[in-house]
C-alpha cells in the first residue's frame, strides 16, 4: 500500500511542470515572433526534451499507481464476496425472513461493486489530483501571485457546481430508480407467471400497472435531466469566465510591466498560471464526486460487514454444542412452545404446544391449513427457535445440541420440494452430506467428483463405462442414489430420462413435474438413512399408486426410524402410531388413529370429511380381478414430465441470470428498424430538432475557442505595446465571457430538450416492449433462453440504449462531429504546413483512445459474464435455504462459490495489467504530440512562414478535434449497443405472436387476414358485462397428438379423444407425468397440438387467432402464484377483461374460497401487499386466493389443477360446497389425486401414458379399472 501512496502523490507533480515548460516555450515563441534573430533552436529543443522526459515519468507513475489500486480493489472485492456469501448461508431462517425482496443480491452485486469502485484506481486518481492541485497553486503563487489569488475563487464554484449537481442528480435518480424498480418487479412477476396472465387475459391490467409505475417516474426524470443540463452549462460557463478574467488581468500585468509600473510578468508565466490552475481546478471538480463514491463505498462496506460480522443465532457450520446427542432412542418433547415469525410479529403461530414424539414410531400432525404444523417441524429442524418454551431431546434442550450433528441425523422433505440446478444424481447424493451415518462418502460428494461423472455421461459416454473408470466411493454413491430413488418410486422415470440419473433437473427442478420433484426430494432424504425422517406433505403431488408404494417403503423403515409427517390426506397417515391434531397453534387432541376415531373428536370429523361415501360405491372388488377397460389399453410406456419445457419458465426468478437474450442477432431489416424507431421518436421531433440546433452551437464553440486562444496569445505579445495589450485583453476577455454565456444557455436548453425527449421515448419503448412480451406465446417464451430474467433486458438495457439516441448521446455525437470538421478545416486554412505534420498524429491519439476503450469495454463485459455464475449460485442457495440448511450443504455451496470466482479473478488480474497500460498511454500521448507541435511550429515561425497567432490557433484546433474523435469513439460502444438493441426491440414489437402460433403447415390456411395480436384481441373482448353468458360451455379434444417444442421426439398426448359436455363435472386422474396438466394447456391454447383439434363451445380454437374464448375460462394452477401487488389486485386480476370488480364482488369471491377471514385479520386487509410469489401466505392460503381469483370471473368453464391439494379437509369441503353452486351453469374439469374431491364427478377420465385408458363414473371405474380401484383402496378410510 505504501508504494501506491508514494507513486500516487508523485503523479500529481508532472502536470504543473509541464505548465512551466509550456510557458517557457510560449516566451521563446514570443521572442521569435518579435525578432527571428532571437531564435535559438537548441533552447527550444531542450524544453521539448523536458516535455518528453516529464511525459515518460507521468506515464510510469500513472500505470503503476492505477494498476496497484485496481489490484487492491479486486482483491478486496473478492474477500468481500467470499465472506458475505459464507455469512449469508450460515444465518438462520429468521434473519432471511426479515430481509426485503432482492436485498441480498443487491448487496452481493451492487454493494460489492460500490466498494470495489470506491477502492479502485479512483483513489489513485483522487490523491494524484489533490497532489496536482496543491502543486499547481504553489507554482502559480510563485509565478504570478495576483492572477493565482484571483483564480482561487473558481475552486468553490467548481465544487459547488459538482456537489450540488451530484446531490440533486442523485436525489432525482433515486426517485426514478424506485419507480422503475417497481415497474421492473411487476414485469418480472408477470413474465414469471405468464400462464396465469394468458389464462385470465390479464395483459391490459398488468400493462396499466406497469405503465403507471413508469409514468410516476417521468417528472423526476425530467428534473434529473434539467439538473444535469444546468451542471454542464455552468461547468463551461465557469471555465470560459475564468479564462476571460485571467487573460484580462494578465494583459494588464504585462502592460504595466512594459510601462515600468510593475514587476516582471511574461505572457508565458500568465499562460502557465492560467493553464495549470484552471486545469487543476477543473479536474478537481471532476473528481469531487469521487467523495460521494468513497462515501457510498464506506456505507456499502458497513452494510456488508454488518452481515459478515453477524453471528448466526442458529449456525449449521459452527462446532458449538453437544455433538454426541443421539436421536435413535429419545423422546422429542415440546413443552409449552410458543412461536411468532419475525416477519409477522403480531401473529402468534404456536400458542403453548405440548406433545411428545416417541422414538422409532410414526407421529403424524394433522389439522387445518395455517394451524402451525409446518412451524412445528421447522422448529424441530432448528430453522427457528421457540419464542418461549422448550423442545427436549430426551432430557436435553435442543438448543444445546450441535446444529450440524442434529440435522445430520434427520432427513427432511418439504411441502414445496426444493432442488438445486444440478443433475438428479447430485441432488440425491447431497443427502449424504452432513449425514452422521455416511461421513466417509460425504467427502466424495464435497470434492465435486460427481460433477465430472455427470459431465462425461451428458457428453455421450455410457454410464457403465464411466463408472467402471471411477473411484469405488463414487460407484457406491451412485448405487446408493439409485436404491434411494427406487424406494421413492422414482427410479423408473429417472431411467427414462435422456441421460438417466445424470439428467439435469433445471432451475428449481423446473424440468420435472411436481410429483417427480417430490420423489427426488424424498430420495434425497432416504439416502441419508436418517434416525428422524420429517415429511411435510411429502406425497401431496403424487398419484395414489406412487403414494402407496412410498408408503410401503416407509413402513419398512418405521421400526428403526422415527417418522414425523404432516398430511392433509388422511389416508397417508392411517397407519401412524400417533396422530396429533394441531388447530390454531394448539394441540387439539392426540392419540392413536383408533383412539381418536373412538373419541369422535376433531380427527374423526376430518376422517368423515374425507371419507368416500360408500353409498355411492356398489362394491369394492378385489384388486386381483382383471379390469375391463372402457378405452385404450393401459400398457403404455410412461411419459416424461409434462412440464419439462414449461416449468423452467414458470419457476425462474428474475434476479437469476440466464442465457442473455441480447446475444441473439438482429433479424429485422435496417429500413424496418429505422421506421419503427422513428415511430417512437416522432412525437418528440420538435424537441430533438431544438436539441440538435443547440449541439451545433456547442460544437462550433469548441473551434471558436481555438480561434480566441490563438488571437489572445498573439495579441498579448509584448512586442504589441502596452495600450494594444490592454485593449486586446479586455476585448478577448469579453469574447471568452460571451462564449461562456452561449455555452451556458446552449447546454441548458439542449440538455432539457434531449432529456424530455429521451424520457418520453423511453416510456413508450418500455410500455410497447412489455405489451409485446406479454403478447408472445408460451412456446416463444419457452425457447432460446427466454427466461424472465433475460427478457427483462428488453425493458431495461435495450429500451434505455435506444432512448439514448434521442438524448445526450446523439447531441454529443453531433457536437463532436461539428467540432472535428471545423477544427481540421480551420487548421488547414490558417496554417496548412503546420497542420499537415500534426494531422498524421491524430491516428496515434485515436489508437491509444481506442485501445483504452476496447480494453475497458472487454474487461467490463468479461467481468460481468464471469461473475454471473456467482450471482446465480447465490440466488439458488438463498432460494433453497431450507434445503441447504437441512442437509448441511453450506460447505458444499461455499466450495462451489470459491471455485466459481477463481477463474474470473485470474482473468481480471491479466486484464488489469494490460488495460492500465493503455490507460496511461491515453493520458500521456497527447503531451508527446504537443512536444512535436512546439518543435515544428517554432521552426515555421522562425522561418517567417507563419505567425505565433496562427500556430496557437492550429494547435488547440487540432487537439480539440482529436479529443472530439476520442469522444466519438467513446460513444461507439453506446451507438453499437443502441443499434443492436433497436433491432431486437423492433423484432419484438413487430413479432406477430398469433402468426407464430400458426407456424405449422396444418394451420397456415386458417390464418384470417388482418388479425390482431393477442393483446389487441383481448382489448376487443366485451367489457359491458362481467358475465358474457350464463350458460356453461362444452369442450372437446379430438385426436390430439402433442409434443413439447423443447422435446419434439417425446409424445406427451397420443391421439387423445375426450368430450366434456356443458354443465358437467369432470375429473382427470392418473399417475403424475401422464399428461393431465398438458390437457389443460391444450384447452387454454397455451400450445397448439401437433395434430388434432380442440373445440370450446363448438369453436375449433386451433383454427382461429382470437383469444376471447379464454374470457369464459378460469384456471386454478397446480402451484398457486400471486403477483406483486395488493391482495385485492390479485383477486381482481381474475375478472373478465374490461370489468373492474367492486369491493363487494372481491369479498364475495374470497368468502366462497374460504379466505375472507384470513385477509380481514391482516393489518392492511385487502390492501396487504403480496411479496414476490405471495410467500408470506401459507401454501393453503395461496391456493384459496387462487381459487378466489377464479371464482370472481364467474367462468363458464372452470379448470382446477390440484386446486385443493394443500387444504385441510374442512376447507376442502367448504370449497366443494362453493363449487356446487357453479354446477349446471359452469363446466368444471378437475385434476386430482385426492379421489374424495372428484368421486361425485359426472365422468372421470383415467389418463396414463398420454392416453385416456379408462372413463366412466366413480362406480363404473371401480368395477372396470384396476388402476382406479387400487387408488380407491389406498385412499379408503374405512377404519
UniProtKB/TrEMBL annotation:
Residues 332-609, 1037-1274 form the ABC transporter domain. SMART domains: AAA. This is Putative ABC multidrug transporter. It comes from Aspergillus steynii IBT 23096. Keywords: ATP-binding, Cell membrane, Membrane, Nucleotide-binding, Repeat, Transmembrane, Transmembrane helix, Transport. InterPro entries: AAA+_ATPase, ABC1_TM_dom, ABC1_TM_sf, ABC_transporter-like_ATP-bd, ABC_transporter-like_CS, P-loop_NTPase, Type_1_exporter. GO terms for biological process: oligopeptide export from mitochondrion. It is found in: Cell membrane.
